[in-house]
């Protein structure tokens, strides 16, 4: 059902190689389809959107105006959402907002010895697009995780796109979350065509500055295709969790956490790394009995077989080395002293400390973002946050004495690069008349 590796006999390099996932090989026809869709929307705008929505989502809107989700619809959807779900949305929204407000980048200034002022001005983006998967499933948590950081950052226009069902409906919980999160505009359109509309604009949907949020392979390729014409957050892959555990951990809790990731997708990854050999056997047994009555049993079982692993290491130092090599999206430190290991973690999208911090709290209610780097990209990228919805401008204000002190160095660098006019622009301000 799930593979077992022993680092002590195989070596860490062999285990990393066995678990590494090369970049997905996407069929040429999918690449071609995305190119065609993006080009059609860019060239024909609303007409292409209507045609593609009818083809892929089986919703015949008739007119572009019917793709819009009105404020009245959102209010009605909120009323249709069960009271406990509305309360959960409010609870999660408050925690997400508080966390991201604390992480908000801020403008700053320093003054040097000549009285010259240097610094950074942080400004929000004007208009951002949020892609939220839909159709057969509802993801109100993704609405909260993408819209609230944008709102906290000060973005004025927050545009939601999500695919409808064949009747043009969007799940009420998604729209209730959009209303709670501060979404200012919403459209029932999905797929690569929605990404293209956000990137290039149509008569009905104005272009945005940046597109964030997860989606299927068509959405991921479309985001990659439009990057440069518009900003994007990341190109996300299948979900993954790596649990580092010692003998103090409960096998049934570990199994529950592994299955929470495995049920996402057959490509999801669920890995246990431990220095306690009996824990591997106990976790395998717990996986079997927990799988028995899981509604998404077939998906979870396929993920465990193809991408899961139970790994025995010599000690926790070796476990941490392996974790850093794999750079997982979610990393659980389920050990006696998790805080002691945290300073040694270099690469992970999110780190969960202790047995009472299952990864699923991060998915929904803890506050930190659940849009995270996957596939080892935590080596160089970070979770979605307020930083993704602002941009920085450098601020430079020199005094006369500051410019005079810099002049000989500026002159030397400009002339070694063969840019004499650069040097003369500073020399023209020299009170000693050297630039005249």
Summary of the model, kept short:
The chain contains 18 helices and 15 strands. With 436 residues, it is an alpha/beta fold. It folds into 2 domains: 3-19 and 237-380, 3-Layer(aba) Sandwich (Rossmann fold), CATH 3.40.50.1980; 45-81 and 123-232, Nitrogenase molybdenum iron protein domain (Rossmann fold, 3-Layer(aba) Sandwich), CATH 3.40.50.
Report on the architecture of this protein.
The protein is α/β, with parallel strands linked by helices and 436 residues long. It has two domains: 161 residues, Rossmann fold (3-Layer(aba) Sandwich); 147 residues, Nitrogenase molybdenum iron protein domain (Rossmann fold). Helices cover 45% and strands 16% of the residues. The chain contains 18 helices and 15 strands. The strands form three sheets. It has a six-stranded parallel sheet with strand order 1-12-11-10-13-14, sandwiched between helices. A six-stranded mixed sheet has the order 2-7-6-5-8-9, with helices on both faces. Strands 3-4-15 form a three-stranded antiparallel sheet, with no helix packed on it. Strand 5, helix 7 and strand 6 form a beta-alpha-beta unit. The longest helix has 20 residues. The mean pLDDT is 95.
